[in-house]
Amino acid sequence: MWNDWNSPEELRRLGKALEDPMAETTYVGTHGPVKGTAESIVGRLGSREVGGSYFTLSDENNYTIWSVLKSCHERGWIYKGADSMPWCPRCSTGISQHEIVTEGYRELTHPSVYVRFPLRGREGWLLIWTTTPWTLTSNVAVAVHPELDYVKIKHGEEVLYLSKGTLASAFPEGDYEVLEEIKGADMEGWTYDGPYDELELPKRLGAPESHRVIFWDEVGETEGTGIVHIAPGAGKEDLILGREYGLPAVAPLDEFGVFVDGVGWLSDSHVYDSAEPIFEDLTKKGLLLRTEEYTHRYPVCWRCGSELVFRYVEEWFISMGEKLDKPFEDLTTEEKDKNLRYQIMDSSLQTHWIPEFGLKRELDWLRNMDDWMISKKRYWGLALPIWECECGWYDVIGSKEELRERAVEEWDEFEGRSPHRPYIDAVKIRCPKCNRLVSRIPDVGNPWLDAGIVAYSTLDYRTDRAYWERWFPAHFITEEYIGQFRNWFYSMLAMSTILERRTPFEVCLGHGTVLDEKGQEMHKSWGNAIWFDDAAENMGADVMRWIFCTTKPESDLLFGYTRAEAPVLHVAVQCLQLLRHLR
């Protein structure tokens, strides 16, 4: 990267010039004046010619990622799949597995609910429990563990079924009578009525006809009732189980977390505001047993902190390959050639990791991760170069030159523009299968694609291979290890492996987190944040360096003004000793 130039004044002038983006302007770069349209110069920010730091919006950054995705497509690794994804209603986009695993959970308290599902053709109700009452609109089945013990009890005038091991938590007052004990296996195929079978959306998708008891080995008794409500359109594990049993997926939310048409009185209301109205509705229907507050680790958006929901959507993925049930050392060359995850593991072994456990963490992540979701339902960002036809055919464009050759409409509209919306969306190509005009998909790319391509896009990999070879790979990189094994370290390794099957960095130092002196995270809203400029002014840069150097990199660093007092004295003593030596 070129960090020798970053003139705020020139950037401000360029920003002003963008008021007429196609007008010619002159820009003072690293090696002198650069002429062109304002938009074309923005597209060259970060290059050797123009200078500056790493700009993810640059043309070269985008087109280099296009070449990576083209390479994946040629090997059959790009596909569109439907999944129940963690979704941020505020950001209106899916959150990938990489993003949610690391920084994506908080301890939150939500109202949970015990709900009765009336059985069909037999006495009694199934008792289920959920911490996400909005998903009841999407209920399709319930799951039991075939080997668990279940009980038929009398509670007041009602007959209920639940697992024996959850009786104490479900009925802490002990106000029940056990009528019968059975195994979960005995309940297979029992049918029931769902709480929202009257709604148009679940009826249209066949949810009421699917209501039955199925088996799931993941059902336990540490919480709930041992009978798990299954909503394939509102949960990842539910969807996997639903596919196994051929169940429909009812997806009740739009991209903003608002209930869609077809869910009756809930339509147009927001999921965040739905719990209490649903409890009231269940009470009117005679289905609600009780509610209680429940504290648990719940997924949140790593960017904005909003609570996530699971939403059934179509996204685009890079296949990581099958998870083979054999040691990595025993894999054949042929097996690795077909499997991206094991190729990346090979690249990881080419790097020296500090601390040493970094390699183990990276390999564990690669061994167990799912396919990489690369699409986002946003407007601005990397325009995924995927053109998809109504007939099901799709192709990945690998360069600006390829797009020019294949364009049949609106190339002139795009010519001279950066490869971003809206201009890139105007370009049409021809479907070789049905001869229709084909448009680019509206999705943009996962931002970790931008982060992962840095070792190639900033070194002119596509246009000056000799220059790239001179500087590649990086001798040393460093970042906080807690999240980056699954994010930045991973994405750089993945993209470098796709292009060259080589590591993009020789040494990787993963460091701990900078916390306040009490060991808490620093937040502006908490009043404990210390800004770098303030710290340098008040304690001095040398003292800061001393604090950093006296902490093991893999350990969290407790930073604050109180701790700075001791290093000040220590440095002063060292200075006096040095002066004596110089005399």
List the helices and strands and how they pair.
Elements lengths: L7 H10 L6 E6 L2 E6 H5 L16 H16 L3 E11 L4 E2 L2 H7 L1 E14 L6 E6 L10 E4 L4 E7 L2 E6 L3 H4 L6 E7 L16 H5 L2 H4 L2 E3 L12 E3 L5 H10 L29 H10 L3 E12 L9 E10 L14 H5 L2 H9 L3 E3 L2 H12 L3 E2 L1 E2 L9 E3 L5 E3 L3 H7 E3 L1 H4 L13 E3 L6 E4 L3 E2 L1 H6 L1 H4 L7 H7 L2 E7 H4 L3 H13 L4 E7 L2 E2 L16 H8 L1 H9 L7 E2 L2 H22 L1
Helix pairs in contact: 11-12, 11-19, 20-21, 21-22
Helix content: 25-40%
C-alpha Rg (nearest Å): 29 Å
- The CATH superfamily of the domain at 105-299 turns out to be Valyl/Leucyl/Isoleucyl-tRNA synthetase, editing domain
Strand element count = 27
CATH class of the domain at 105-299, named: Alpha Beta
- CATH fold type of the domain at 105-299: Isoleucyl-tRNA Synthetase, domain 2
- Give the N-terminus to C-terminus distance in angstroms: 44 Å
Question: Main sheet: which strands, in order across?
Answer: 10-8-9-6-5-13
Number of helical elements: 22
